[in-house]
Predict the structure of Trehalase.
Amino acid sequence: MAPRINHPPNAIFYEDHEPSAHPSVHAHDSVYYGGKEFHSRARSYSNSVPSDRRMQAAANEAVTRGRRMSHDEKGNAPRRFLIDVDETIRLVLEQEDTDGDFQISVTDSGPKVMSLGTATSNGYKSFDVRGTYMLSNLLQELALARDHGRKRIVLDEARLTENPVDRLSRMIRTSFWNSLTRRIDGDGLEIIIADPKNRTANLKPRIYVPAGEPKMAEYYRKVARDKPHLGLEVEVMPPKCDDPVYVKSLNERPGILALAMREASDGQGGTTLKGIPFIVPGARFNELYNWDSYFISLGLLVDGQVEMAQGMVEHFIFEIKHYNKILNGSRSYYLCRSQPPFLTDMALQIYNQLDRRNYDANHLWLRRAIQAAIKEYHSVWMSLPRLDPKTGLSRYRPDGLGIPPETEATHFTHILEPYARKHGISILEFSEKYNDGVIHEPELDEYFLHDRAVRESGHDTTYRFEKRCANLATIDLNALLYKYEIDIATAIRDVFDDALELEDEFLLSPFPPCPEAFDEKGPKVTRLSTANVQSSDEWFQRALFRRDRIDQYLWNDGKKLYFDYDTVREKQILYESVTAFWAMWAGCASEDQAWKLVSQSITKFEVIGGLVSGTEESRGKISLDRPNRQWDFPYAWPPHQIMAWVGLERYGYLEEAQRLAYRFLYMMTVAFVDFNGVVPEKFDAVKLSHMVDAEYGNQGIDFKMIPREGFGWMNSAYQVGLSFLTQHMRRAVAACTSPEVFFRGDQNSASNAARDYQASTDPLGLAMESLSMA
């Protein structure tokens, strides 16, 4: 006999209310599970008693799957289940999670079927939940219910069969962004100070405040006093906080860097400071990043979170003012290096979505952003050592000393071992003496010069840049700077009446750049920013100059592709990189160049899952002594996809952009469906797999029962990519229709093939038959 259910006093019974009293099917979990708790007068929750199938599975006996609907409740009303949360979690994991990772995926060998009691029958009749997708969704929903303290729930079947495209997009919009939100203030410090990359013995929480912000420093000292359990140390940095010697001195006591704050009411008639919220990439990257933030902001804009994106620009303005650049990331060990620059496009994208009624405030905000970008342009990218005066092009070439401390413990072992052996000491001892300057190894200095440049490029790591990155004028960086020049010129002309005065004082870079204009210390003739009103003409001239130099040094008409240029060896590096298409995003390719890129070069990079980072031929053979690098073939990354989609659309190649977007979103959706909702950092686009073994593996995949964050720029790629798809393409992606099938023949045959493909490639019979394809 089934156990008696003891209901709490004043229980609300499902049978006593109309279905409309239940929350909306796809409401946020805080509403769906955080509102009224419904109970049933049922004899039992069916999940509390193992079915024959569960007993067979537990005994390792073969499970015979009954015909669908053979014992299920019939009816036209939306189906709901009565579920005991904790017991059902236990049963699902026990029966279906055969590899013990707290996820239900296609690699698990469970029976992939579970019976749930229906609400309208008071749990007496049951219905089979079948297949990886529905069962993993069940596990996710149960985890959310448990988050809200629910012991028993009435669960809509529609939450288990939800169109996967709609479900993933909804989770990104309503859940993932919230989980990735951080704030550096008294309320947010406890989360942001955690740094998985800190391998030192000194794990004490620490925040570094820039000089010139005494109010901010005092605020954090008060936080340290008011919250002694944090053990927070507050340090004020010197004015030149990016001096390499000073930065190296912080390696054994790393900390978070202060970011922009706003004054707010303290609730007691006074004011206090509040951190401006921002989005982090996720997983081990728990701080503000440079180019990640740009791509994240695109997804935020698609999802209507303009204020969040605007706040991230505020942080970049703050970083340029106090740290002299937009930093790689907001930790002390990143103070010497930047990342690919996107500030102008980021600011203009946001400006175009601001409330037009606030014209004066919007105008002032854009002025601050453009002024900061101009300072960054001159002080970082058009100054020595990043500028190559001979070509007039720019390079990733940051300052720095010693071994980058934020890498994995064994990352440089193969590099350091021969030197340690040479000196007859351990690798650890050699590392310490090398970092302290006791041991000098010029070859190793050269290696780490290029290694730091690779990290500044954002493409860490790739054989494209191996032992030469700091010498390369890359197509990606110079396309981005061309875009800066065009954006600044356009903003000055169209928004600031063709005259923009700069408030911060700094040196302007000589124009046109040439060797004669520089000596070892910098420009021979100095021009101060405050003494020169900026006009659009100079910036358009800078853009034309750069485009000519890109054509001269980086374009290869014979190969119909852009390549990097080695400024030391004075030759093109013929490594085929998908960043060649950044020239189309920036608009610096001619119509003829764009046509050649699309008609003759795009196939070099296009695979079933989208665009790979580089070609297999350029990467070369992989072996134990020459392992895979994560920014090489066969890996696909969100930035490369988005830049190509936008660039192709800009030049009128919308069909190609849609095809590539379809490929990438198909790969994402299949992973989401087959692997418990996973949204990783990157993919192997040839194998359509997130199981990546290059370097430190993959991020965003280590979660229990339900994904909480996804991964920053992958979330954005999905939201942005959906904007490129037609409704027909969106439905086909939701049905997990392979691109090879969808793009075979005309659209009508592809639609029919999608249905055939779904049935023929599901040998386990676990297809999502109940999917709503609205």
DSSP finds 26 helices and 28 strands in the chain. Residues 742 and 750 are 5 Å apart (CA to CA).
